[in-house]
Amino acid sequence: MTYISDTSQDLVLTDRDPVQELREFSRGYDERDWNQSPYGEGYAAPFDIPLIPRSEWRERIEDMEKTESRLSDLCEREGLTVLNQGRTNFCWANGPVHCVEILRLSQGQPKVRLSPASVAAPIKNYRNVGGWGEESLEYIVKHGIVPQELWPQDAISRQYQTDRAQKERGKYQVDEWWDLQPRNFDQLMTCLLLRIPASVAYNWWRHLVMAVDPVALDGGYGIRIRNSWGTRWGRNGTAVFREGYGRNRANPDEALAPRVVTG
């Protein structure tokens, strides 16, 4: 399983990587119920800005790499490692919460590690079950996220729902999100080229992760993802999905991009 051990360079997942092996490690994403949660009608507005044309992608990416202005560069400078969902089924909260952590940094706010379990556990009445990204988004918009110093990132327990935790939640909310069209790679790349992170979910993988950077590859493009399986997976918890990988498996079935956070 080379995709969980290569730490020397970007790990680019290709058609040679067995899908079944990835699925065996996946945990927690339920396919979004589009009847219950229609596209662009929930707590995220539909993506509504012009696409950055593909003719500009490579030059923009090269400039981001040269100036070390990618979101992954920011994470490295600030020491913001990937999250670890542990034995929880809460990938669907880890992705959006990690987006908030990174967007805070990009907006000049101090680093604060936030707890995905403080979002997912109350939603699911403290049961260790799956969900989808828009569910966690709704909760973050309404209630916010508790810092890990008050609620461990993978703790499923009511004991952490204290008065102090409730008060702190309100400091870490989201004001504006985009709901990207399902399986629209160009919308996702536009967000990443503008340094806007996105939570991305894949029905084939039964998993939700976070997209952080646009990547230029030989003969094409990809997206760098930050997983929620700790730093031992991929390259310090990251990998690259090439566009077209395994019949377009790089195109997410649900994608949400935060634009403005509070706190």
General description of the model:
With about 260 residues, the protein is α+β, with helices and mostly antiparallel strands. It has one domain: Cysteine proteinases (Cathepsin B, Chain A), CATH 3.90.70. Helices cover about 30% and strands about 20% of the residues. It has nine helices and eight strands. It has an eight-stranded mixed beta sheet with strand order 1-7-6-5-4-8-3-2. A hairpin with a 4-residue loop joins strand 4 (about 200) and strand 5. Helix 4 (about 90-105) crosses helix 6 (about 135-145). The longest helix is centred in the middle third of the chain and has 16 residues, at about 90-105. The protein is globular, with a radius of gyration of 17 Å.
Strand order of the largest sheet: 1-7-6-5-4-8-3-2
Radius of gyration: 17 Å
Q: Helicity range of the residues?
A: 25-40%
- How many discrete structural domains? 1
Overall geometric form: globular
Query: In CATH, what is the class?
Result: Alpha Beta
CATH superfamily: Cysteine proteinases
What would the average pLDDT be, to the nearest integer?
90
CATH architecture field = Alpha-Beta Complex
- Sketch the major β-sheet: 8 strands, mixed
As for the CATH topology, it is: Cathepsin B, Chain A
Write the H/E string, N to C.
Answer: EHEHHHHHHEHEEEEHE
**Which assembly state applies to the chains in this document?**
single chain
- The total of helices stands at 9
Count all strands and give the number. 8
Strand content: 15-25%
Low-pLDDT stretches are 1-8
Intertermini distance: 40 Å
Category by helix and strand content: alpha+beta
